[in-house]
Design brief:
Layout (H helix, E strand, L loop, with lengths): L5 H7 L5 E3 L2 E5 L4 E6 L10 H16 L5 E6 L11 H9 L9 H24 L4 E5 L2 E3 L1 H8 L2 E5 L3 E3 L13 H9 L1 H10 L2 E3 H7 L4 E3 L2 H16 L3 H13 L2 H16 L6 H11 L26
Parallel strand pairs: 3-4, 4-5, 5-7, 6-8, 7-10
Antiparallel strand pairs: 1-2, 2-3, 8-9
Helix pairs in contact: 2-4, 3-12, 4-11, 5-6, 6-7
């Protein structure tokens, strides 16, 4: 028989443990932690504040011996996340450093370090010793799919829209979805979603294996996910957390090696004009005009003397 969820009734009434960035954090007496994204726009866009709040929260959950299971969701009426804040990203890409290093290698290393920090923020979910359940509503776009795939178990409402959106904004997805999505939905489907950047429904996401269950609305979904969390919390923490560690053993080391290569790749590709172009096209309601491409990524054929990048 499932336990009661009286803590969450109290939490909904306003018994807030703390607020970190845009996230409200609740905790039950039996070690269930609920993390709700809750910003004033209701889109919960991903910017530096979002990422750093996420890693701080999951570091604390990981270090607290009383933690048994976590739920990552959004406040009712809010999107799980509308993805990367494109205006912020385009501004960061376009702006000039006040005191730039005169050494190109050091500038690239700095960009590499920044990307690795953002990657670690998402990976903090996968590395957290307790299971993390995702409860998704409305939108899970772009970087949101990296957050989603770092979670252990995933649920959503029927009206949720998903998209691996990075290719549409001139960015190679670099914070985890490229590494984790194929493990969940398979190589072919992951590549199709990555290359097309198309929207797909909760029904599709469940058919692909990305979601465990889909519910008619947010209250029903959250009630069910909280009951799952209660069931997990009732089990042996050593067995549950050990099970997560063992499942991760053959996966996360490979993920981290790939993320390192991804950070190196994007360190010299992000400072291009595709991201500002995507932002401008969106604001001007026109198709973007992307001009950059990959040059001889793996070719062993020598380049001709008159090779030109144009």
């Amino acid at each position: 028989m499932r336990r009661s969820i009286s803590f969450f009734t109290a939490a909904a009434a306003g018994d807030l443990l703390k607020r970190v960035g845009i996230f409200d954090v609740y905790r039950s007496s039996n070690g269930v932690v609920e993390v709700q994204a809750n910003d004033k726009t209701k889109l919960n866009l991903m910017d530096q504040e979002y990422y750093f709040a996420l890693i701080n929260i999951f570091h604390e959950i990981n270090e607290d011996p009383s933690s048994r299971v976590a739920i990552l969701t959004s406040k009712e009426g809010h999107a799980f996340t509308g993805g990367t804040n494109l205006k912020v990203l385009a501004g960061e890409t376009a702006k000039k450093e006040e005191n730039p290093s005169p050494y190109p290698a050091m500038r690239l290393q700095k960009q590499h370090t920044v990307i690795r920090r953002f990657q670690d923020c998402i990976s903090s979910i996968a590395r957290c010793r307790v299971p993390v359940l995702a409860a998704v509503d409305r939108y899970c776009i772009g970087g949101g799919t990296s957050v989603l795939t770092a979670c252990d178990v995933r649920y959503s409402t029927e009206n949720t829209i998903f998209s691996v959106k990075e290719a549409a904004v001139g960015l190679a997805a670099d914070v985890g979805v490229v590494q984790r999505l194929p493990q969940i939905v398979g190589q072919g489907r992951a590549r199709e979603l990555l290359f097309t950047a198309r929207n797909f429904s909760a029904k599709d996401a469940k058919a692909y294996g990305l979601l465990e269950d889909v519910y008619s609305d947010y209250p029903i979904m959250l009630k069910e996910v909280r009951q799952v969390a209660e069931q997990i919390a009732a089990n042996s923490p050593l067995a549950v957390q050990g099970g997560k560690m063992l499942m991760n053993w053959g996966l996360e080391d490979k993920v981290q090696r790939s993320l390192e290569y991804t950070a190196a790749w994007n360190a010299f590709n992000i400072p291009c004009d595709d991201i500002p172009e995507a932002k401008d096209a969106f604001l001007e309601k026109r198709p973007p005009h992307f001009k950059n491409r990959v040059l001889s990524a793996s070719s062993s054929v020598p380049l001709p003397p008159d090779f030109d990048v144009q």
